[in-house]
Structure formats: structure tokens, C-alpha cells
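Support reply, case 0932

Customer input (verbatim):
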Amino acid sequence: MNAARALTGLLIALAIPAHAQITVDPMVPVSICGSPTLQVDISVVSAINAGNLFTVELSDAAGSFATPTVIGSWSGTGSGTISCTFPAGIIGGSGVAIRVLASDPPEIGTPYPLPITTVIPPNAGLNAVLTVCSNGPIVNLFMGLSGSPQAGGAWTSPTGAVVSNFFNPATDTPGCYTYTVIGDPPCVNESAVVCITVNQAPNAGANGSITVCSSDAPFLLFDQLAGSPSVGGTWTFGGGPFNGAFVPGVSSPGCYTYAVLGSAPCANATATVCVVVNQPPNAGTNGSLTVCSDGAPVSMFTYLGGTPQPGGAWLGPSVPVGGMYNPMTMAPGFYTYNVTGTPPCANAVSTVTVMEFAPANAGVNGTLDVCTNSTPVNLFAALGGSPNAGGAWTGPSPVISGNYDPATMNPGVYAYTVVGTGPCADATSTVTVTEFNPPNAGSSGIVNWCQSFGALDLFAQLGGAPDVGGVWVDMDATGQLVAGVFNASGVTPGTYGFTYIVNSTACGPATATLSVIVGPCLIPPGEIFPTE
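Our regenerated output:
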């Protein structure tokens, strides 16, 4: 059993060819600036086939060949020298290594810890030329360098003074500014320059504005620019050329542009003058207004001539409210209408002269009660209030001298009219005339009445045709008169007086008297003493 195993192992060993041994010859430790090309000597033990390619690989910083970097190759079959380019930034002795691979047969050599250090050289970029404008933005000189400069360097001015990397075209001196990056040994410092030319910006001044009245005199727009504009520029308005002379009332209001050409990279300089043209106010022309003192409020604005603009203010003997003249509360006179001008236009003023007339006064309606047998009565006195004299009367009958005569005229409504002055309307009031017949209390008499007869109806004892509804007065205060009936049984024999009164507002009262003689006589009922 053991003999069989030994034989098998021998056969396997004879079938597998011997491995080539590839090693890197020792290298002298050195520190080099940049990315040098160095000769790497290799030693090869065993056979290498013709057409073989040796490749040199570089590990990462930890010595791993998981993702190696090829730094050189050589076609050969034995020991030799391979030219290799080492990248900058290798730190010798840090763990980085190299190895050699053979392609035929495939073999991987023994890794060799690299003793070489390659220092990254400084990079100040490439020289550049800049042209800027004096009113341009601050320039970052670093951004002006060409290439791929590294940050952290220092800048010096054309005079050698240390400056920042920011160039202010408005204040800094033009010229060549040097950027220097310090090199780590054995690398030396590196510099690049940015040469700056500053072109002066054109000056169109600063924006201006002006407000004028359409009646103002012409003026030059250039004089309205702020700052210190250069002469020789051009004016435009609405996309077209303009001569620079503004004529109020003729030239269009708006913003006019003044342009001065600039040298590249300076842009053209522009400034604007914005012109506002205000129209003068219009208060119309003077007018007059005639009103009645009891009239409704009137708008004075409508009595101005011309085409006045609304929104003005009124002044006068009284304070107008809303431009209205109220005859009931305001005094007549001169009322001025003032329209405030938008500066620089002056205010405009016009006047309305108000004249006021007193209204006609026909008084207040009245009534007149007259007796058909009365004398003529003055109708004017029957009016209420304070009527004006001099009016005219009309009615059912012609009125003469303002009197009503019951003997010749008919009752009814009589109108009194006073003619108004100026715009005042006529005034009319009425007197309603009612005629009344005079009252009739009948005729007086003497009545003989026995005490034993008792009640006596006095009205029946009156003569003539007396009006009913009158009032009886007990002249002797007997206390025995009730509703026109006299109780003779309640008095002692004697003579008693009674008055019958029929009242009339228009004609006055009418009266009749009865004298009743009461006796103790015994006369059969139904017989009456004769009257005298």
C-alpha cells in the first residue's frame, strides 16, 4: 500500500514542469521629484519561452495587487532590465511593492518592497493674459490661470508685494501678477503669471428724472443726467434716435436712453432720463348762479364755463359741502373753485357769483266764518303766517280791495297769489269762506203762572220762531230750572226772569227774555193767565 502511494507521487512530480523564479534585483533608496522613468533589473531562474512578455506591476499603498498598476514591460526570455515609469506620490518603505509577471509560461514573480519615493511636483498652472473693464467685477486671479494649478500658492503684485488672489479693476494696479507654489524637496517652487490690462469704462452718468408742465420751455436731457457723464454719446427713445432736446407738450413723455460706447470688454454705458409731463389743471371759466333762498341745493360746478375738471375745492362766504350751494344755510357772494395743479403746474382758479332772492310768501291757508248780515271783512287778515302784501285774490266772486262782502259775494275758496322774484316760484295760499245765518232766540214775553201748576216749558213761551239748541239762564238763581223747564211749585209767589241765548261764532249770540209771574191762585188746570 505504501509503495503504491510513493510511486504515484513520483509520477506526478515528473509530469509538472519546474516553476521559473523571477525576482527584482535590489534597488538603491532614492527620493525623486515628479514621475521618473527608472531601470528595474530582474533575475530569472529557469526556462522562459520565446515570445514571452515580462510585465512590471505596482501595488497599492498597502502592498495589495488586487488592482495593480502596470508601470513597464519587456519582451525577453531571461534576466534583464525593464524601463518603468513610476507615478509621483509613491512613498518608499510604506508598504508599496512591485512584482514581475511572465506571460509564457505564466509566472508571477516575488513581490519586492519598493524603496523609491516620488514626490509630486508643485503645479502653478500656465501663464494667462486678461483684459478687464475698470467697472467690472472683482477678478479671481487663480481662476484666470490656465492648466490645472493647485491651490494654496501665494500671489505677488507687479511690484513684488504680497497680495490676495482677488484683483479689483477699480482700485488695483494693472500688470503681471505672479502665482508661486512651494515645492516639497527635492521639487523646486513653480510659478505662473497672469498679466492684466484694465480698460477704462465709459461714463454715461447716472439715471435722472424730471417732471415738467406741458406749458414749460424746452430743455436738454443731458442736463438732467446725474453724475459726470461723458459728452459725445447718443440719445434714443422707443428704439429710435432722438436729438436730446425735449419740448414739453410736443415730445412724448417717457424714459430716454443716453449711450456712450465702451472698449471691449467694457460694455457700452447707458443711463436714462425719465420725463413726466403733467397737464395744467382746468378750473373752467367764471360763471354766475341765481337762486331762491328757499330753493333746493344746487351744484355750483355746473355753472362754471368751459370744461372744468372735477375734484377741485370750493371756498366762499360759507363752507360748501360737496360743491353744493344750499340757499337754506349758505350766504350768497363769490365762490371760488380751485383745482390743485400737479407740480410743477400751478393751481387753476375760477369763480361762481351767487345771487339769492327771497321767496314769495303768501302766508298759510286760513278760514273765514262770516255772518250773512255782517259788514265787509278783510281776507288778508284771515291768512296765517306772514304773507307778503301786494298779492292778487281770485275766487267764486271778484274780490275788491281784498275784502269779502257777504251782501254781494258767494262763499267758497279764495286764493291769494304772490308773484315770485327771479327764480323764485309764485306762492299761493287760500282762505275758505263760510257764511252763517244770524241766530234767532225768538221774542221776549211775560208769563203768568200759578204756583200750583208746577212745571213750565219756557221754550214754548217764546214768541216768533226761535232756534232750538240754545241755553237758558236762571237770572234769579231759583234752582228750579232744569233743561228749559221751570218748576213753579218750588218757589214762592213772585216774578222770576229767564234769558234764552242762542250762540253763533260768526254772528254773535241772540237773546230773548221771559218774565214769569208766579201767583198763589187756584185756577183750574189748562187755564193760563194772559200774557202782556
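We compared this against your earlier run and they match. Two observations from our side: The chain has six domains: 14-119, 128-199, 208-278, 287-352, 366-436, 445-519. Residues 2-15 form the longest helix (14 residues). Please reopen the case if you see a mismatch on your end.
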